[in-house]
Design goal:
single chain, about 130 residues, mainly alpha, about 65% helix
Length: about 130
């Protein structure tokens, strides 16, 4: 189920910290569940889509270099925000789709971990929908 290299994982962890501020602490040795969710989700997708996702990670670095003369990892926070804002809201549809796919995976990986629930004050009822009935 291993899809990403260690360098790709480090880059995704950096992106996760920019997309979900609370995820900035993932860093070295990110929660294994984070990767199980992300790689588990992508492993169920066609290999072509997995490769497209990896190419999108490279595109982020190339765009950063074209715009600022440095790859994303070497940019300051404000410059990283410029790149991410362009990907999310810019005029190029395929970049927007790629960014929203990346963002969805990061959200799934981060918020899908069971241990995050109490940290964000999410305490679902074990009785489920019974709580909704009058």
């Amino acid at each position: 189920m291993r899809i990403f290299s260690e360098n790709e994982k480090k880059f995704i962890e950096l992106l996760a910290g920019r997309v979900v501020a609370r995820a900035a602490g993932l860093g070295a040795g990110a929660d294994e569940r984070f990767w199980e969710i992300i790689e588990g989700t992508l492993s169920g997708k066609p290999v072509k889509l997995q490769k497209q996702f990896k190419v999108f990670l490279i595109v982020i670095k190339i765009l950063s270099f074209l715009r600022f003369g440095r790859i994303f990892e070497r940019l300051g926070a404000s410059q990283q925000e410029v790149i991410l804002h362009f990907l999310q809201d810019g005029p190029i549809v395929i970049f927007r789709k790629g960014f929203w796919g990346l963002k969805a995976l990061i959200f799934m990986g981060y918020y899908g971990r069971q241990k995050i629930g109490p940290e964000i004050h999410y305490t679902p009822s074990k009785r489920g929908n019974e709580m909704l009935k009058p």
